[in-house]
Amino acid sequence: MEAHRAHHPDADLEPLRRAYVLAESSHRGQMRKSGEPYITHPLAVTLILAELGAETTTLTASLLHDTVEDTEVTLDQVREQFGEEVRYLVDGVTKLEKVDYGAAAEPETFRKMLVATGNDVRVMSIKLADRLHNMRTLGVMRPEKQERIAKVTRDVLIPLAERLGVQALKTELEDLVFAILRPEEYEHTRELIAENAARPGDPLAEVADEVRGVLRESGIPAEVLIRPRHFVSVHRVARKRGQLRGTDFGRLLVLVNEDADCYGVLGELHTCMTPVVSEFKDFIAVPKFNLYQSLHTAVARPDGQVVEVLIRTHQMHKVAEAGVVALGNPYAPAADTPASDTATADAPSPGASADGERVDPTRPGWLSRLLDWQQAAPDPDTFWSTLREDLAQDREITVFRPDGGALGLPEGATCVDAAYAQYGEDAHACIGARVNGRLATLSTVLRDGDTVQLLMGQDPASEPSREWLEHAHTPAARIAIQRWLATHPAGGTDPAQPGESDDTCAGGVQVTAGPSEVTAEPRTASSRATEVPSPAPAATTAGPADPSASRSADPSALRPPVAPGAAPAHPAGGAHTPRSRRADVLVDRPGAAVRLAGCCTPVPPDEITGFAVRGGVVTVHRVECAAVAHMKSRGRAEIGVCWGDTAECRVSLVAESFGRPHLLADLTEAIAVQGVEIVSATVEPPSQQRVRHTYTLQLPDAAHLPALMRAMRDVPGVYDVRRAQHQPRTS
């Protein structure tokens, strides 16, 4: 009660008194393995939380946390005497019986606890304090049981303490686990710390005095403390730096009143002392995913020793030490509502959460992701192993969607992980991504702050690739992909790397046509691109396809279906009548023949220029064409040219896309709807899951070109359409 009143002077202590009376009477006669009365355990757990500043409801539940599990007290009795909220917390930390669950009792207990934590993070606060006291008194257990409990603590509880920001519990748990699992290294580290304490003079104390003097002269009120490193931290520094010096055994902590004072302290230290710039980190402007805020810097002494300095406000320090425990009651109706009188409040509504890692500390993004994937892992062994893998990824990043929303992902996550985080199992249809506006493969590793636009296919039969498993880091992605592969043993082709089925746009293609759609028969990846010329057959009519023509190499099949209301590209039933249809060009050379250059395919109203070639023919180029600069460099004289009145023209367009079924059919249909004739087309072999199409098109009016390019870009899977621009040959 005294520890609680130190943080909450106005707290109502009556619920604590009644909870103690019930706990003491129900546990009376029970003893711990150490020989102490059992009530000493819930008392110790409650004291740990009280010293961290937990509010009354949490302390009430922690006093009762073992009553339902180990005594005759029931959850209904807890609800009647203390309210639904306390009942929920007690139920959340109550273990499942081995009699009912067998070997699955431990993983299923943690699953139950995590689900309860998703609705109220105070459940996990109680569990962490419970495990800390059990670890403190683990010495009475058999060595093999000590090791088993220590490993679970290392793999599950310590990462959870880190993610919830409860550093005070995390650091002590780390040291206790270190002592059990690595006793020799622990003993060596203990000796190093003892030797340093016995040395005369403390360089950290000297620097602390110097810092106090600097801040006193600058008029910034601050408290400067020495923070000794805990055992695991000293061990890590020793492995990183080798021989330890006096300043390696601790850090300076500077506590101020206001956020602005943090930066004022930083400026004074960097002005009056020698800063180590590479050590500066600003976790105030960009807090960690676990609520941690602080400025980190380092200064060098004249003898070369480096002193690390942490700068934060008193409130930041409280949150850094206690994490979610320092939030009081995070489910209070208003931010300024006292957290002390909530013992009889209703339980929090399930699933209350906000979008974003740092917006809602009561349901952070990592916890939401964990709760999502655990639903897809009904097998206890899969859940237990996946949970440990997930928690081992202890750093988080935030990436942003184009609409401004955020996705929280573990460090090392790829576009595959982002797809499943955003779309769930619908991500099977993902065909690519743009990262920071640039096209990226699905295997691209994301960085904190990236903007990710996921490109989704429209085919409902889309399937994930087995290769995606190599790039999936999140359990949600791996479980979704593995579940699909398990139910489709013959599946797992790469939707973004076509060439496995007969209706997929692949590398070089041989074009075939049925009565109502255009498909492409795949060839080997080493095949050369197939250029399809333009002799056109009779117009396509509805009716059954001729099976004998299903693998025809007839290039006329590339001609798109006739759009409703549009005239066929060539007379039905007749052979193609060759004719040169192009925009009129007026040339400043009477009688000269004119040819539009194929390298840049100029169309009105492009700015154009001309050059004379063999036979007196004048070739017309766009002025920005690379061939123009090449010919000028060789001394070729320009000839004046301009557009005439005729708007009909021929143009070459390059379409960049991800491969997917029916893509070629959809593209040619989009071109047909615009009333445009395909003169020729080339489909190149895929490269990095992308396919390049080059079309030479005859437009009835050059003014239709922008609309045509927009229509082609709107085809799902197409991410770019541009005018062709060939590089001149250098010889």
From TrEMBL:
MF-aspect GO terms: kinase activity
Taxonomy, superkingdom: Bacteria
Known pathway: Purine metabolism
HD domain boundaries: 38-135
GO cellular component, one term: plasma membrane
UniProt-annotated stretches for the region Disordered: 335-361, 488-581
Domain TGS: residue ranges: 395-456
Keyword vocabulary terms for this entry: Kinase, Transferase
Ranges of compositional bias, category Low complexity: 335-350, 529-577
InterPro entries for this protein: ACT-like_dom_sf (IPR045865), ACT_dom (IPR002912), Beta-grasp_dom_sf (IPR012675), HD/PDEase_dom (IPR003607), HD_domain (IPR006674), NT_sf (IPR043519), RelA_SpoT (IPR007685), TGS (IPR004095)
Positions of the ACT domain: 652-726
UniProt GO BP: guanosine tetraphosphate metabolic process
Pfam families membership: ACT_4 (PF13291), HD_4 (PF13328), RelA_SpoT (PF04607), TGS (PF02824)
Family (UniProt): Belongs to the RelA/SpoT family.
Name of this protein: Kinase
